[in-house]
Design brief:
ten-stranded mixed β-sheet; 13 helices; about 30% helix; about 20% strand; globular
Length: about 425
């Protein structure tokens, strides 16, 4: 009797494992890999994209970054990379990946409310992994759909099966993994046999953002972190050069936004100005707060806030077109934006020091870096500033992919490409 029982159990386990393999989603720990029989192309270039969160465009000018300087000399750099509004982490990483403004790709803040799905916040891993929150088509999905193997190491959005598609390799976020370990993992991916090697890799460092928030962008602590990141960029490039495929690898070093110094003396608590009965919900975070007014209360809220110094307040109908921030039901009817270097809070117990981001991209302190080198790029070329929505078309061209529809265009970045790639 017991033998029959265990035989049935073993058969069930074997069937379960077989079905998992067929579905192509056997996972090991916090790493996801597709292990099905999908056939991938090996005749496309390699593109490896590292985002260093909060790396302001002028850090290489005010701090010592010889490795980024060397990358610029052997490749290209943009004078500045302009983020989308709001200049926050998840909205802009997803704009980098999709070529869409936040109002179109759906990630309108790091935290927001969807009228059907509910709240999205970075601390809610279930929400972060829910594909219904994400619109558009990130570049790794485009690659996978066209049989180009992709891998993502903590890139925002890559933990969700967007359009039913994961990167072939992806990792669930774990901030305790060192930057050095991340470098070694990416190098190991590129050292795989040709048929198993990802041709698109998107990976992520959470610095210098954290240090910039705590100590401000122009501090000794931020200097140390920026210069350490530069040294790691050098280590990574040297390890790339030791690979047999080194001459075929295109490297991009970029960021989502910059950083602005703030002070408790430049802070405003909006809850002290508005009556609770006027407000249904408040979303977003300093320096951009969204207010969902209760019925009949919009005029009351606007009449108060329009007289508050150092805060701009918009309705969806009055939102400046340049911000591209009205075409979404996840954006509340009233949007408050602090002036540069100012802070706005809702029921704050204290006002922050150090640095922050999220401001109108017309503030150059919000601008980020873009450096690139490899066979697709010119040498020692400096590009004019461009918006990050134009990066998806650039990546698609380098990889030879048919791009999805985006808000961006290849035109602003084509001048940095070699002629055989550009045309």
């Amino acid at each position: 009797m017991y033998k029959k029982f265990f035989c049935k159990v073993n058969c069930f386990i074997a069937l379960f494992i077989f079905l998992m393999i067929v579905q192509g989603c056997v996972r090991n720990g916090k790493t996801g890999t597709a292990t099905g029989k999908k056939s991938y192309r090996t005749d496309v270039p390699y593109l490896v994209v590292l985002s260093m969160d909060g790396f302001r465009w002028d850090y290489p000018a005010i701090y010592h970054t010889p490795n980024l300087d060397s990358i610029a000399a052997t490749g290209v750099k943009a004078q500045e990379l302009v983020p989308c509004f709001p200049s926050k982490t998840f909205p802009n990483h997803y704009s980098l990946a999709t070529g869409l403004y936040p109002e179109h790709h759906g990630i309108v803040q790091n935290s927001f409310y969807d009228p059907v799905l509910g709240k999205y916040t970075l601390s809610d891993r279930k929400a972060v992994k829910n594909p219904e929150f994400y619109f558009g088509e990130p570049i790794w999905v485009t690659a996978e759909k066209q049989s180009v193997r992709s891998a993502c190491f903590y890139w925002p959005g890559s933990e969700a099966p967007i359009k039913g598609v994961y990167p072939d390799i992806y990792k669930q976020y774990d901030g305790s993994v060192s930057f050095e370990a991340r470098i070694d993992t990416v190098i190991a991916w590129l050292g795989r046999p040709a048929g198993e090697r990802p041709h698109l890799i998107m990976w992520y460092f959470d610095e210098p953002d954290h240090t910039g928030h705590e100590y401000g962008p122009e501090s000794e602590q931020t200097k140390e972190v920026v210069e350490h990141l530069d040294s790691l960029a050098g280590v990574f490039c040297r390890k790339i050069n030791q690979l047999s495929i080194a001459d075929s690898v295109n490297l991009v070093f970029t960021s989502d936004h910059g950083m602005q110094a703030i002070s408790p003396e430049r802070a405003i608590a909006l809850d002290k100005l508005l009556k609770d009965r006027w407000v249904n919900l408040v979303g977003g975070a300093n320096p951009v707060l969204m207010i969902d007014p209760n019925a009949g209360c919009t005029d009351s809220i606007m009449s108060v806030l329009k007289n508050v110094k150092h805060v701009k307040v918009y309705t969806k109908s009055s939102m400046p077109e340049s911000l591209h921030y009205s075409d979404s039901n996840r954006i509340f009817d009233i949007v408050c934006v602090a002036d540069s270097a100012w802070s706005i809070y809702w029921k704050a117990s204290h006002f922050s020091t150090g640095g922050n981001h999220g401001y109108d991209p017309s503030n150059r302190n919000m601008h980020a870096i873009f450096y690139a080198t490899g066979p697709a790029f010119l040498k020692n070329y400096v590009s004019a500033p461009f918006q990050n929505i134009h990066i998806y078309p650039l990546f698609a061209r380098i990889l030879g992919l048919i791009p999805a529809a985006t808000d961006g265009s290849l035109t602003p970045t084509a001048d940095m490409l070699r002629e055989n790639v550009r045309e």
